[in-house]
Amino acid sequence: MSGAAGMEKVYSAIEQSARMLDVPCSRDRVLPILASYGDAISEVAIIFSVSTGSQEFDYTVQLPEEIDDPYAHTLSHGLVAKTDHPVGALLSDIKARIPVSEYFADYGAVGGFQKLYPSFPGSPQKVADLAGIPSMPRAVAENADLFARYDLADVALVGIDYKRKTMNLYFQLGAEVAGDLESKVVLSLLHDCGMPEPDEQMLELARKAYRIYITLGWDSADVLRISFAPQPRQNLDLSEIQARLDPKIEAFMTGAPYAYDDDRVSISVPKWSAQGGHFNLGYYYQVSPQLKALIAKNKD
Questions:
Q1: How much is the pTM?
Q2: What values do phi and psi take at 40, rounded to 5?
Q3: How far apart are CA 212 and CA 210, in angstroms?
Q4: What's the Cα-to-Cα distance from 69 to each of 222, 237, 261, 265, rounded to whole Å?
Q5: Of 223, 51, 201, 49, nearest to 152 (Cα)?
């Protein structure tokens, strides 16, 4: 498939998915983003997602290996405005100190560019090392005792939100607890982060997490949001959260297009802020060769 044809195919899927969610989608807004990745847009992993209660449709793109500086790439293509806020220096400060082997970028059909994710697969980073990075929020160091209390030690990737001026630490859970957290641990962590107590349904879903990610900012030590991410899986059982689902989201999760010959690989992430809980739901529109291999392995 040619680069132009591949880009049109991805755009068509984004437009169709956004329409299913009653989210406006403009070619003028989305196509320049896809075009910035060239022919590789047909080969990289792409995730489509939506949050309950949101009026946005998000798509996350795995960056091609030839893009060594994603923030510079984003600036040069006019997808974000340069800023003097520390958020603008964080990626370069991380790159200068930590080997980064993989990047992802978040976009909204309405809002455009949102976030970059430097990832450290196989080389998780420690909180103390990340806290020492000059542009890192002081909140990372100020919450170090909290993280240690819950054995949140290995950071698999960092999220940098240029729009909200916040960042995320994605903690990889140890094999002995991943997918089977104790209820009392989840409840205690939510309490210590200043979040409301969950209902039983959301608590059970949070217990399945293999990663926990924490949202922090530069203005205070407060934990702004906490999310519990289970492993992406095929044949996601939406009945677990049926009562919370808008019919449009259910239709999106079961009927929106995807570009591989296998069952849809989906995600369902319970999240909390001080205002309450919600879900982020999505699926892989395109899968990377690595994920294809993992799917095949799990089928054996």
A1: 0.94
A2: -65, -15
A3: 7
A4: 30, 38, 32, 29
A5: 223
